[in-house]
Design goal:
mainly alpha; Growth Hormone, Chain: A; 2 domains; disordered N terminus
């Protein structure tokens, strides 16, 4: 890939100055840090490739079994290793060169993608093999993804940290929007199909290695604890003793456990829009589009001082939007509410990431960031379980409406119970 693409991006961002008066996403990190620029380019291309198996694996499982339950069980194969491996991986990240750790994890993930492609070409049709490969992939991602987040504060000055995190969120929104569409096109192309999705995913790891291989050495912190349960416990204890981090994690869990009704989408679509699959597809696309717009227009986010209060406000908007989605009578209003939820989610994630990175000393950053990742992944899974269970006991509309309103109330309770989090202001990291 070389410096050609990096040079093109440099030229582009020079034209789109990330000055303080701009509404568009602040691109100073891309312009001023060659290492961050390479990391962002490689990560974005890799993320789009990584979205392909997220489309292909559920489709292949369904084609083999014709069972929605078998498709849902993929979530178990993802969550269990994420929770069990994620926290321990954070302890390892604090004790080794994080750059090398990501390179090893990325190579392992590429091998798993190769295994997915191999089983598709061989036509094995084994659901248990797919579950096993997904579990191994999730284990590696539980190490890879959190450690990648720790790169940003190491590569950028404190005043560009929020901008760097916003650019990372832009990568996620590009993946969420472009990945599924690309996967659908590849799957429908004669001669490619699901095998093409797996092959392109495996090839995309070359982009990931491009972004990471030329990073500066990121050695272990002096005096770092040895990896193990004691090191994990130290990280959990640090989070529990910090009202700032505790507030950020509780706000995120409040949003995802109570205010995430994705499991209700098919039922609400069937009840309100006659089960049209095109409408169901628009539900997810609307969330992605809303997040993509706010990620692209996130320039002012870096100038918000009271990030704790802003995060609680974004969580409340997220909950209110899903409550509005529950009772919206028309398709256009339904999609507007979902887009608003996606927009609020971008701000929530950026603020949470900035708070976590600014409030954590470097010696604990791997463990705390890993906990942040586990909270994000497990909260979404628990949220879908909660929404589906309540929807079965009552109705999908009541479940979505109640979840949204509880999320709004929960944001208010967290703000009152943890005033230190509400008062938290953006600040340079103490270890810089």
């Amino acid at each position: 890939m070389g410096e050609g693409l990096g040079g093109w991006v440099t030229g582009w961002v020079r034209k789109r100055d990330g000055g303080r008066g701009r509404l568009l996403v602040d691109v100073r990190p891309l312009r001023e840090s060659a290492a961050f620029r390479r990391l962002w380019i490689g990560s974005t291309l890799w993320a789009v490739g990584g979205a392909l198996p997220q489309f292909a694996v559920p489709l292949q499982v369904y084609e083999i079994t014709r069972s929605p339950f078998a498709v849902g069980a993929i979530g178990v194969a993802q969550v269990v290793p994420t929770v069990t491996i994620g926290l321990l991986g954070g302890a390892v990240a604090d004790a080794v060169d994080r750059r090398k750790l990501v390179l090893v994890a990325s190579c392992g993930s590429a091998a798993v993608s190769g295994g997915l492609a191999a089983q598709a070409f061989a036509g094995l049709g084994s659901v248990w093999l797919l579950y096993a490969l997904v579990a191994v992939s999730s284990s590696l991602s539980a190490i890879n993804a959190p450690v990648r987040r720790t790169f940003v504060p190491s590569l950028l000055p404190a005043d560009q940290l929020t901008a760097g995190l916003a650019l990372q969120r832009l990568t996620f929104q590009i993946m969420l929007t472009a990945g599924p569409a690309l996967a659908g096109l590849i799957t429908a192309t004669p001669g490619l199909g699901l095998r093409g999705c797996y092959l392109i995913d495996a090839a995309s790891f070359g982009c990931s290695l491009y972004g990471v291989a030329r990073l500066p050495v990121l050695p272990r912190t002096a005096g770092a604890a040895r990896p193990g349960l004691r090191a994990v416990a130290d990280g959990v204890r640090f989070i529990g003793q910090s009202r700032i981090l505790l507030g950020a994690f509780l706000a995120d869990l409040n949003a995802t456990i109570f205010g995430l009704p994705v499991a209700l989408f098919p039922a609400i679509n069937a009840e309100r829009f006659c089960g049209d699959p095109r409408t169901l597809g628009l539900f997810t696309a609307a969330i992605g589009a809303g997040g993509l717009v706010t990620a692209a227009l996130s320039g002012p986010v870096g100038r918000i001082e009271r990030q704790g209060r802003a995060m609680l406000g974004a969580v409340a908007i997220w909950g209110a939007a899903f409550a509005g989605f529950a009772v919206a009578p028309a398709l256009w209003l339904t999609l507007v509410m979902l887009a608003l939820a996606g927009a609020a989610d971008t701000f929530t994630v950026v603020f949470r990431g900035a708070i976590v990175q600014q409030s954590t000393p470097d010696g604990l950053r791997g463990r705390v960031t890993a906990a942040d990742y586990v909270v994000g992944v497990s909260g979404g899974s628990l949220g879908n379980l909660e929404a589906g269970a309540l929807g079965s006991l009552t109705s999908p509309v009541i479940s979505a409406l109640a979840g949204g309103l509880v999320t709004v109330a929960g944001a208010a309770v967290i703000g009152l119970a943890l005033p230190a989090f509400t008062r938290y202001q953006r600040q340079p990291r103490a270890d810089r």
